Each structure stands twice: as structure tokens, then as C-alpha cells.
Amino acid sequence: MRALTAALLALAFAPCVGAKPIIPLLPPSLTPETAPRAAAPGLVKRSKRVKALHAAGLDTDLAAFDELDRDLLVYAAASKTPAELAAKYPALDPAKLKSLQAQLRVAR
Amino acid sequence: MKMLVWGILTLALGSVARADILFLDVNFSINELKVAADAARTRGEKLHVFPRRTPEQERTMDVQWRLTQNLQQKMLACLQLGKGGCEKLSADHEAASKKMKLLAAGITPLGAAELKKIFAEVVARGLPVSTIVISGHSGGFDYSGLFGSFNVDDVKSAVAENPAVLPPVRAVLLWGCYSGTLNALYNRWKKNFPSVQVFAGYETRSPLGIRETGARFLRSFLAAEPRLRVARTVGEAHRIFRAVDLVADLDGTALVGDFYLTYEEADSVANMLARCRQFPVPLMEKYRCYAQGEAGCEHPPADHLGPLRDFYTFLQVNRHCADLVKDKYPDMPTPESLIRLIYLDNVKENFARQHGAEFPAYNRLNAAVGLPAGLNAESFIGSTHRRDLDLMNLQLSLLSGRGLRDGTIVDDPRYEAVVRVITVSQSLYMLVQALPMNGGNEPCVPFSWVERGAAEPDKCNFSLLLQEPWPAVLLPSINAIGENWRLIRHTLRVNPLLLNTDLPAVVPGFRDYSVKSLEEGLKKLRSYPDRTANENELIVKYEGWLTELAAFDDAAAADRWVRDARLVIAHLEARAAELTAAPDMEMSIRNLNLQRDSYLARVRALGRPNVQRVARLR
């Protein structure tokens, strides 16, 4: 799929074989908003995630969670309210979830 | 076994009576310099900073640097208001930046030759350098910034010329992006400098040198490093390392002896490399199968389980392999990318919900260039990945027939609409493919879209691109594409050999060269006493091309391009200024600056003198 997109872009960049891209079709920086973006929670880096889950005392509770489950839990903790998080993960101790949220709020 | 190896290793770690820190500051990392000075005092060592500057120079640069940052922030605030009137701030900021560069110009930059001189001086003065800190922009092996650039091979050459510099060195701290991958630390540094006991760096992007976090990490690591070297077991070393300030948050890593340490694990390099050799080829093949929507992999499973998920686990647990196997598997996804493919159904649902109201505008655009209704936006909703690919293929094939290949598209009255369709489609494809990034480091499909009902908007520009009229910020792009095609058409007709030139930068040069080569060709052809029919045809053709070239208003094209480029430059600078307020944006800012510099260089090349010169030629 990406190769196909690349092909389309290559076509637009350089409609002739052998021509090198001259000007980006749409410079990635040309986005409309100028306001600084709030740091939207994304996929938390594994080191930080491991540290946060460990500090929240969740290691044992998450034995059945795979990497992706853990990433989604940490994302939810970073983006939801304590009540929403507790509702999404009813099997986990709300106090530990709250602690997890506190860990993730630690500024870089 | 781990314990035994560790024991042998640590027995070999001797201590030296005197020790100093050598700081190679490639990008004026003033905060890091300050903590290194503190650490040196605490450790009873001396700090030697290169490139050398007087305290007065450093103070002046510090003041100027802070002023530049301050103006940048004010300019940003002004731009945010969107009410204009930011010209003075912009000019002040530009002047401050120039002054900063002028101040830096008074400093001897770091480079291959300078490194040799520095190491020679270290040897000549008998400085017992035990720790080397290198700080600057980095891609893993190279370091660059305000004060020059060099790479690991340059360091190797400098050491080779001054071998006495190396024996006292116990630690090399690499404070730059991607400097701490296993590949960088082990293959590039440890193998070149096997006697050095500790290497450390960042596994991913590092914070900007202006931020406190990088300095905090450095301060803490410098304090921990002596204990790290005398740890009795791997476990003890790992405990010390995990306690380093911000080590998890910043993805700090260390190579201590033959053990690689990240926050979450410590293992021998041999084991970690073995894990990469066991790369799960079947999972990679399955990923390719789903990514390409091949038979049996038409769409990622609805339950989000299966081999894609298994591959995700491998990539996360073995992220140190990414840098090591990328040559063999260049299409290997990142976890950020793979998770969006796994949840492609949710991503597409969010796309349809957030952008459904704009579909009619997209469809009108499609219709304007004669694309079939089957390629309308709705066709991508609820379809399989395979079906999306088929639609993309169809669109690609139809657009290819619109004169894109030979540049004749610019003669088509619908060419602007075609440009728009291509540009909007680029955005649509990123959305329906769930691509995490928009070109470079800009976010496109947000991570939150892996869940249904996401409220966060994407950054793929789909809405922006559908606006009528086309927003001013995009005009430089669309105009540039037009100029590009126009020039390509002429290039194809006149001299295909010129296809590899950077045409917008050399519009006048392009014309001059073409005219000259055609005239020379004509002269030669006309000199033949017995011309063949083909040669006569060629003469007519050359004359026609010359007429066409004379009619091409390259001065006006250059003017238009310069005008547009200035808009782009202003936007890039504003965007870079904006990103300084966000964390982890060092690479983005660097890319923006590179783009800006490229535009600036071409603007200079197309400046008024050149344009006027071409006008006179005509």
C-alpha cells in the first residue's frame, strides 16, 4: 500500500522517469494551525510505559496482557479521566490506575 | 554466566589517579555544559570544552541565544493571533539569528581536522581524559550543529593519529538523537574503541539542547557512571542505571562492557544480537501480506488478534533490533505504524465520521477531472484494504493518462484541478492507510484513532485541501507543481538530459544552457555539407525548440517561484518556532530548518540579479 502511495507521489513529484523530486507535493509543515499543539498522548515509549506500570504496582495484575494491551492501557490512562479509565478496566484496582495516571503526568 | 562475565569485565576496570572530562559541544548545549562543569567539580575533575571559547564569548552567545529564543516565542505568539503585523518581530528574530551565527562564526568549528588538533593537544598537555561527552544534532553516528560537524569515523581517525588519548578514556557519552541504539553503541563505537568501558546515549530522539531534561539526564549519568563501572553484577549495574534521572522518559541506554542496558532490561550484547538473528521472518511476511492486501490478507482481522499482533509484540520487546535489521527489512514497520494497521477498521470509521461531511466536495473534485464515481470518497468506507488498493491503482492509472508523464498536463485547462485531486488523494490515502506520519515527522493519523469514536482531529490536511478557494498557505505548493510540470514539458521537448537538474533553482541557467546547446547543435548540423533527411528534420526541430524556449517566460516563472518560496520560508520558520514549545521535536525542527535552508538557497540562486540577467538575454 505504501509502495503504491509512493508511486503516486513519485508520479506527482516527477512525472518523468529519471527526474528527481523538485518540490514536495505538499510540504508536511504546511499545516493550517499555528497554535502550539498540546502534547496529545500517543503511543508511550516502552521504557516509560514499563516504568509507569511498575511504579503503579500493576506488573502482576497485567500478567495476561500482551504488549499491545499494555500500550492501550497506558494510552487510556494518559487520555481518560480516572472514572473513564476505571470503567474501561473494571478488573484493575482503581487506586493503581490512578497511580498509573499520576506516573504518566510526570513531565519530561 | 552473566555474573561470571560481568565479574571478569569489572575486574578489568582500573581507575586512574587523575581524570578529566572532555566536552565536544557541537551545538551550544549550554545547559549540558553547566551540569558537566558541576559534575567535574563533584568528581574532582577538570572540564575541557571544545570548540574553545572565552568566558566572554560564551556569555555573549548565551545572551544572544536566549534573546533569539525569546524573539522566536514572541513571533510565534504574534503569528498565533493571526492578525498580521508580525513583520518587525520576524525581522528582529532573523537579525538575532544572524547575529548568533555571526558570533558562532568566531569560534573554530569542530570537524575531522579540528578533532585531530584537539586530541593532539590533549596528548601534548598530558590531560588524562576519562570521559568524553559529545553533544549535538545526531542521526546516530554523526554530530552536527552551530559549531560544526563530525562523525564516528572522524573520531576514529583523530584517535589513530593520537593513540595516547584513548587509554585513560573510560566513558563516552553521546548526547544526540539515536546515539544510543545497540547498533550505534556496539557496532560503531564499542568495536572502534574496545578499551572504553561505558558508552551511553539516547535510543530514540533526544531533547533539544536548550531543554533542561537532557542536562538532568547528563548530570545524573555522570554521577552514576563511576558506580556503574565498579558494579559487581549485571543486576547491580542495572539498578544503578535505572535510577538515573529521566532514563526511562528519555529512552536512555548504556553499553557497559559487553552488556546493553535500557530501563527495562540488561542483557549481553551477544544475547541481544541473537534475538535479532531470530527475527520472525514468517511474521514479517504476514505483515507484508496484510500491508499489500494480498490473497488471504485482504483486511486485518476484526478481532485485532493474530500474526500482526504477534509481530507487534516482537517489535516492542526487541526494539533494539530495528536499527540492526533495517537494511535487510527496509519495510519493517514501527510499532506506531503497525498498531494503526491492526486497528485499521477503527481508523477508517473515525475517518468517515470526522470527514463524512466533506465527501461531496471530494467527489466534485473527482468529477471535475473526469474520474469515475466509483472513486468517490464513500468507496473507501467499509471496504477492505484490498479494495482500497484496487481503487488507488485505478486512480493512479487514470491520472497517469492525464499528461503527467510528459508534462503536457499544464496545457490542460483542468490541470489545477488535477493537482488538487492528486494532493487531496495523497491525504485520503494516508487516512485510509492509517499512516501515522504526514511526510516527515508530522503526525497524520493520531494514535487515538485506534479506538472507535475518537474525537481528536487528524493532521492529514484532508479538510484543508478541500477548501475553496485553495488556502493561501498551499498556493506555493500548487504553483510550484505547475511550474515544475511546465518546465518538465519544456525539458522533455528540448533536452531530456536536463531532467536531473534542480529546475526551479536554475530556471535562468536551464534556459541559458538549453539555448547554448541547441545553438551549438544547430551550428554543427548546418555545417554538414550533405545533410540527411533526418538531420534536416532535426534542424527544424531545434529551431522550433529555440522559438519555444524564447517564448518561455522564465524570468516571470522565477519571480513567481521566489514570491511563493518566501511564503514557504516564513511558514517553515513559524512552524519551527512553534515546535520549540513542544517536547521531542528536535528532528522535526531540524528538518524544517533544512527545508528552509534549501528554499533560501534557491531563492538566492533566483534572486533579482539573475532574473534581470535573463531578462536582458532575451
Could you characterize what this model shows?
The complex is a heterodimer of chains A (108) and B (618). With 108 residues, chain A is an all-alpha fold. In chain A, 49% of the residues lie in helices and 0% in strands. Chain A has five helices and no strands. By secondary structure, chain B is an alpha/beta fold. Chain B is 57% helix and 9% strand. Chain B contains 25 helices and 13 strands. In chain B, strands 2-1-3-7-8-9-10-11 form an eight-stranded mixed beta sheet, sandwiched between helices. Classes of the chains: A mainly alpha (108), B alpha/beta (618). At the A-B interface, helix 1, helix 2 and helix 3 of A face helix 3, helix 12, helix 14, helix 17 and helix 18 of B.
The gist of it:
With 108 residues, chain A is an all-alpha fold.
Multimeric status of the protein? heterodimer
Kindly provide the radius of gyration of chain A, computed on alpha-carbon positions and rounded to a whole number of angstroms: 21 Å
User: What is the makeup of the main sheet of chain B?
Assistant: 8 strands, mixed
Helix segment tally of chain A: 5
* Alpha-beta content class of chain B: alpha/beta
Number of strands of chain B: 13
Strand content of chain B: 5-15%
Question: How is this fold's topology laid out?
Answer:
The complex is a heterodimer of chains A (108) and B (618).
Chain A: H1 2-13, H2 46-55, H3 67-79, H4 82-88, H5 94-104
Helix pairs in contact in A: 2-5
Chain B: H1 2-11, E1 20-25, H2 30-42, E2 46-50, H3 55-81, H4 87-105, H5 112-124, E3 129-135, E4 137-138, E5 142-145, E6 148-151, H6 152-161, E7 171-175, H7 182-190, E8 198-202, H8 212-229, H9 234-242, E9 252-256, E10 259-261, E11 266-268, H10 269-277, H11 281-291, H12 307-317, H13 322-325, H14 335-342, H15 344-355, H16 359-368, H17 385-404, H18 415-432, E12 437-438, E13 442-443, H19 462-466, H20 475-494, H21 507-527, H22 533-551, H23 554-579, H24 586-605, H25 608-617
